[in-house]
Amino acid sequence: MECNEDKIFKKNLQLNNSLDEKYSLIKPITTGLSESKVLLVSDKNDNKFILKIGLINDENIKELLISCSLQNHVRSMYFPKIFDYGFTNYVNPYNKSGDPKLYLYIVMEYIEGYTLKDAIINKKIKSQYVFKKIMKNLIEAYILANRKIGFYHWDIKGDNIIIRKNDIPVIIDYGHSFTKKYNPDLWIKFKRDFYVKLSKHYLPEKNIRSRQFDKTLQNYKYLSPEDQRLKKINIKYVDIVNLIKLINTGQRMLFNENQILLDDTDIKYLNQPKLPFYQKLEYLLDLPYFKLR
């Protein structure tokens, strides 16, 4: 399927009521009362996919738009592919209002592996060389996406990194992300057109709502010896802090070592407001820690 950001908005907005005919449920990935669901499904040829079903809101639309931008302009194994998307009258058992609701669905690549968080907690990474290689590849993937489409994740953490076979990290979950190729005006127009075209299906206005994303680190707990130094990093560069935190957490939990990566000179360099973000990430790769051996 062609996954083009502009064509998403031009696409004939037809409801897909045949998800059950196209896909069979293997197991839910997420559980609970949330109206957003992540499911592991298979098609008639037993190919596995991730099926995301959620409300039509900023977070889920951005997930689709940014996934398509990454697929079209970055084309990297470090980001999951999109195979299908659309709108469905998916019946959610927790919707007790009885009102019909429309949901956005996205069919994504299923990645066999485990999250970086799981790998660290359950000690699935056996050597410092492999851990450093994973983190180095992760930063290189971020650099590639930032250079090509101005991509900022803003929520880098162990849960949002999946480790493929051969220790390849994959960055997922773009609900808080931003890219210069993402056009907020186009998204606002899309919401308006979508509501007009599908009002006959009783789509509640409250189901099309914008969300203000919290860009601050609330209740953030620094676990490394660098805690005071990391607090000096500009909040706009939150993923720099997140990456350093991941490295320190991995070093401590996997190998019982504390790693001091940055000094005050490094912090001063990283806080330069006019320095492109990808250059800040490249600076991390030049740290002695990443000299693989």
Q: Features of this protein?
A:
293 residues; alpha+beta; 14% strand; globular
* Sheet having the most strands: 5 strands, antiparallel
Number of helices: 10
CATH class of the largest domain: Mainly Alpha
Mean pLDDT: 77
Q: What string, H for helix and E for strand, traces the elements in order?
A: HHEEEHEEEHHEEHHHHH
Q: What is the domain total for the residues?
A: 2
CATH architecture heading of the largest domain: Orthogonal Bundle
Read across the widest sheet, the strand sequence of neighbours is: 1-2-3-5-4
Strand percentage lies at: 5-15%
Task: State the separation between the terminal residues, measured CA to CA.
Answer: 42 Å
Proportion of residues in helical segments: 25-40%
Question: What class would the helix/strand composition place it in?
Answer: alpha+beta
Number of strands: 8
Shape designation: globular
CATH topology (fold) name of the largest domain: Transferase(Phosphotransferase), domain 1
Rg over alpha carbons: 20 Å
Low-confidence stretches at least 5 residues in length (pLDDT < 50)? 8-15, 197-224
